[in-house]
Amino acid sequence: MLQAGLVVVGRRVHRPVLGLRIGPVTHAVRHHAAAPVALVPNG
Hints:
alpha+beta, UspA domain-containing protein, elongated, Rossmann-like_a/b/a_fold, 2 strands
């Protein structure tokens, strides 16, 4: 079994009025990954 030291997930940059908004896939990765997750803005 492979184990990751870090999971990197790209996200689109939006300018939401209230807080950070992420999509359903990123949300699921954050909650289910056994390793730390880095959210990296694209562009």
